[in-house]
Amino acid sequence: MEKLAGNFFLVGLMGSGKTTVGRALARRTGKTFYDSDQEIEARTGVRVATIFDIEGEQRFRNRETSVIADLVRQDNIVLATGGGAILRPENRRQLAGHGTVIYLRAAIDDLLARTQHDKNRPLLQIANPRAKLESLFLERDPLYREVADIIVDTTQQNVNLLVARLIDQLLALPGHQGS
Question: 13 — phi, psi (to 5°)?
Answer without folding.
Answer: -65, 160
